[in-house]
Amino acid sequence: MIDSAVALPQGRRQRNKARVQERLFEAAVELIARHGYDNTSIDEIAARADVARGTFFNYYPRKDDLISEWSARRGTELRRSLVTEAGGLEPGDTVSRFHRCLAALVELNEDRQEVNRSMVTAAVRAGCLGARESATAELFTAILTDGQARGEIGEGLDPDRLGLLLRDAYLGVLTRWAVGAEQDHASLYRELHEVFKVFLIGALPRTAHRDCCPHTA
Amino acid sequence: MIDSAVALPQGRRQRNKARVQERLFEAAVELIARHGYDNTSIDEIAARADVARGTFFNYYPRKDDLISEWSARRGTELRRSLVTEAGGLEPGDTVSRFHRCLAALVELNEDRQEVNRSMVTAAVRAGCLGARESATAELFTAILTDGQARGEIGEGLDPDRLGLLLRDAYLGVLTRWAVGAEQDHASLYRELHEVFKVFLIGALPRTAHRDCCPHTA
Predict the structure, then answer these.
(1) Are A100 and A160 in the same domain?
(2) Is B67 helix (H, G, I), strand (E, B) or coil?
(3) Which of A22, A27, B103, B141 could be stapled to B163 by a disulfide with Cβ–Cβ 3.0 to 4.6 Å?
(4) Chain B neighbors of A100, CB-CB under 8 A
């Protein structure tokens, strides 16, 4: 497999393909921001990108592939704030990394809010909550795995499962943010901060911990 | 408002309406269990319940209203295991109540599994993750509010928000369970147990707690 980000310089044919795909994606994003995902047709996207309808399907065989593309680009942007070029995590402890995550997720969603709101709703409907593969969950898991190796995360916990749990909670907050146009700018930060806090320190005060979960192996 | 469970004895007309609705709901459940929500048509449901197509719409104006009905019935069943007839919570502390919740949720989902799997998927697609109104979230919130009043839940936390958070995490587990037919019977219990544990005690070991979330008000 060739990573397209590394395969430069490409031939002209390749570059033209990339340009058409970019035009299609941008056309889709602009229409979706204005009319929502369900109300944006493939015909409209193709017309706005100035390509034939059939060309759209060469790049996105199903309309839902736009969601995957959007999601992959978000994943790349998110990784950029937390992962070094060599592919390792930026230095820091677990708590500070999650604080950086929080800031990156808020920024990612508040930039081009209209399209994000529509795409989050569309992504949940397309079944992303049931998917085990998620760039966000993987990043959470990487932070947790590293934190566990350094004794910063509880030993009895499974980082894969924890990463999915945190992704689910994040997605819940994000979905409510996406449907609630009345919310102010600070609300996404506030809600996510609460999720990260409960995830890391739990709902029980420390004194109660010894009584919890007697069945735990 | 009259609570229909209390309004007995009803007239014959009322009883007949209730019988037709029950027949429609049962017909829907059986077809959905066999073919899935999306592959079950209103015509088929009406035919199986032996009523005219128009009659279906008297009871369920939109097909999605079947999801609301299913969800309301599940809510009632769940409450039955945790709420007294007078409407208060069954005696117990927060941890034992969540253990009872866990058992009830597993039982609720594993009974009539096929229809539950289809309905969970349909409910998520219909947007229940974005909804603030949820019988499950409300029950979690009631347990948390009571626990907080007794000093068993951290003071700085908002029970409404916590209830939604736990519902989101529950729904994530449930959605993966719904799409993964390969999973064994114990897996739903195991996954949910992990969620409740992290929710209550957090991912950080106790010694790390003082370092977490310096921004918290």
Answers:
(1) yes
(2) helix
(3) B141
(4) none
Residue with tokens 């907050």: A173
For A30, the token pair is 């602009």
pLDDT at B48 over 50: yes
Separation between Cα atoms, residue B174 and residue A130, nearest integer Å: 8
Based on the fold, state whether residues B54 and B82 are members of the same structural domain: no
Task: Say which residue the tokens 């019977």 belong to.
Answer: B185
- Count of structural domains within chain A: 2
Q: Sort out which chain B residues have CB atoms less than 8 A from A93's CB and list them.
A: 211
Asked whether A121 and A175 are in contact (CB, 8 A), the reply is yes
Give A165→chain B minimum CA distance, Å.
6
Domain containing residue A21: CATH number: 1.10.10.60
Split at pLDDT 50, 70, 90, the class of A17 is very high
| Residue B215, domain member (yes or no) | no
Q: Does any domain span residue B18?
A: yes
A216 within domain boundaries = no
Same domain for A27 and A85?
A: no
CB A208 to CB B152 under 8 A? yes
Render pLDDT for B80-111 as a digit per residue (tens, 0 to 9): 989 999 989 999 999 999 999 999 999 999 98
Identify the domain containing residue A156 by its residue range.
Answer: 65-202
Mean pLDDT of B48-53: 96
Distance (Å) of CA A197 to CA A125, A191, B200: 28, 10, 12
Average pLDDT over residues A156-171: 93
**ipTM of the complex model:** 0.85
A154 shares a domain with A106: yes
pLDDT tens string B111-167: 888 899 999 988 888 888 878 788 899 999 999 999 999 999 998 899 999 999 999
Residues of B in contact with A178 (CB under 8 A): 130
Do A105 and A177 fall into the same domain?
yes
Interface test with A, best of B140, B144, B194, B209 (most A CBs within 10 A): B194
- Nearest CB to B165: which of A169, A200, A206? A169
